[in-house]
Every structure is written in C-alpha cells, then in structure tokens.
From TrEMBL:
Record keywords: Oxidoreductase
Oxidoreductase among keywords: yes
Enzyme class: oxidoreductase
InterPro entries per UniProt: NAD(P)-bd_dom_sf, Sc_DH/Rdtase_CS, SDR_fam
Stated name of the protein: Putative oxidoreductase
Species of the source: Novipirellula aureliae
Gene3D superfamilies: NAD(P)-binding Rossmann-like Domain
GO molecular function, one term: oxidoreductase activity
Origin: domain of life: Bacteria
Length: 249
C-alpha cells in the first residue's frame, strides 16, 4: 500500500514545534494542499499561518481531552493523512515514588490519546478513500532505559496499539505507519538530556513521508534508530510485518 501526499490534506498533532513542525513543513514541501496544525493552544500556530498562509489551518486538539479530538475530526472532515505526533515525557525509574502517577499521565496521552485519535479519525479516513495514519512511537518502545522506564512503558503500549491498528484499518484501505525515532533536537529531547547526541527533526519528517510513499510500516529515521531497527528487523519483518495467518487452535 503506497500513498502520494501531493495535493492531499494532512493533520499533524503537536504541529507548533519540534518534530510536529518539521512534519508540517515537510508535508507542504511534498505538495500537500492543506495542513491542519492540531495543537492544544491555537494561538501557538499563528507563526505557522504567518509563514505559510492559508495552507495551514490551526485546530484545537488536546490528547488529554477527548472532546477536542472529536471536535477536530468534525472540523477536518477532508483529511487524508493523520500524523499523531504529540506526546508527553516524564523521567521516572520504576522505583521512584511518583512513578505510578507519571505512568498514568503518560499512558493517558501517549496511549489513550492515540486510541482517541484513531477512533475519531478512522471514519474520516475511510470516507476519504483510506488514507494514512502515522503514529510517533520511539526506539524506547522496544528498548527500556531505566531512568525513563515509565515513558518507555507508555511507548511500548502505543507501539502495541499501532500494530493492532495496522491490522484493524487494513480492511478500509488505511495505511498505518509506526515511527521510532532516537534522540531528536526538541524541547523534550533536551529535557531528557539528549542535546549532545540529538539530530534534526527534519530527518524524522523526511523519513515519514518516504515511508508513506513506499508503503512501509516501521520507520527508523536517525542513526541511533537505524541501529536498533537493524537489530530488531528479523523479528519485525517475520513476526510483526509478516502476513502469516493466526492459528485459531
């Protein structure tokens, strides 16, 4: 399943900065006719409108607020590509006193948020021919680091949901893409202490639209991610991406 973003309409959550902003700009560069900048505060998207004009349409969407997700789906009824980029990060080990609260916070945004976006926009994508749903997961969805164990757990869960969505949405012709960046130059990456090894968000954005065009499911966009992806590829290719039918016995 392949897809050309030219003349299509794209929605990006968390589009006002970091990876989301790079994805929005890449979509426009690839010829998207319109990009919905789905953000918690629509005022934060004004600089994007000032730079790109009416091709950028701000819309309010907060992964913690199901009503805003449903409202965004009612607004963006013409969308062909939904990129769920927004997410949250807490740095907690599994033994920290606040770890359970942090995990609940991360699960609500990173996992339930993905599910809410998928449930709201799947009918829209179907009505518009199938389209694409992209989820920003992480290398930590397959490798846990102790100092951010709760975040890793939330991303492992979002990766599991993404795999399920791939199968659930196949029948309606929706391509699903799972993106697994390593350290990226974002506010979140800097807060996590990755500034010295992080790479440009544009690398992620380019890899996403290349994957959409090629029909790929997994995306390992940066040097660290490529190393993890290479080690993981045998399992991913044979088990996750394989078309082997489930044995009902």
């Amino acid at each position: 399943m392949t897809f050309d973003a030219k003349n299509k309409i794209v929605l990006v959550t968390g589009a006002n900065r970091g990876i989301g902003k790079a994805i929005l700009e890449e979509a426009l560069q690839r010829g998207a006719s319109k990009v919905y900048a789905a953000v918690r505060n629509v005022e934060s998207a004004k600089p994007l409108v000032a730079e790109h004009g009416e091709r950028v349409v701000p819309v309010r969407l907060d992964l913690d607020d199901p009503a805003t997700i449903a409202a965004a789906a009612e607004t963006a009824t013409d969308v062909h590509v939904v990129v769920n980029n927004a997410g949250v990060l807490k740095q907690s080990t599994a033994l920290d006193p606040e770890a359970i609260d942090d995990l609940q916070f991360e699960i609500n945004a990173n996992v339930f948020g993905l599910m809410r976006v998928a449930q709201a926009f799947a009918p829209v994508l179907k009505a518009n021919g199938g389209g694409v749903l992209v989820q920003l997961n992480s290398v930590v969805s397959v490798k846990t680091f102790a100092n951010m164990a709760t975040y890793c757990a939330s991303k492992a869960a979002s990766y599991a949901i993404t795999q399920g969505l791939r199968d659930s949405l196949r029948e309606q012709g929706t391509q699903v893409v799972s993106v697994h960046p390593g350290p990226i130059q974002t506010d979140m990456g800097s807060a996590a202490g990755f500034a010295d090894i992080a790479v440009s968000p544009s690398i992620v954005a380019t890899a996403i639209f290349d994957a959409i065009a090629e029909g790929s499911f997994h995306v390992w966009p940066d040097p660290m991610a490529e190393q993890v992806g290479a080690a993981y590829q045998s399992f991913a290719g044979n088990v996750i991406e394989g078309e082997k039918k489930e044995n009902a016995e």
